[in-house]
Amino acid sequence: MLLDTDPKIKNITAVHLVKVFYPLVIAKTEQGEYIKVKLSDDQLNDPLFWETARNICQSELWVPLGRKFHQLLSNDWLIPVA
Known about the structure:
The chain is of the alpha+beta class. It is 21% helix and 29% strand. A hairpin with a 2-residue loop joins β1 (12-21) and β2 (24-29). It starts with 11 loop residues before the first strand and ends in a 16-residue tail after the last strand.
């Protein structure tokens, strides 16, 4: 099941990563708002995270972001089906 089609999920928004440079990731929402993505200490120190974030930015993919805490979601757009 997709997260954005589940009516119970209201705290997720789609964003496009527009700037990726250590230690910042800037994202743009579908409404045109720019948001500074809050990163964990693990993400800040992970070279694979930075390479992946740059690739996502260059590919212009949309990724899920939590509305309240502005954090990237690790489970992507899917939730487990019961």
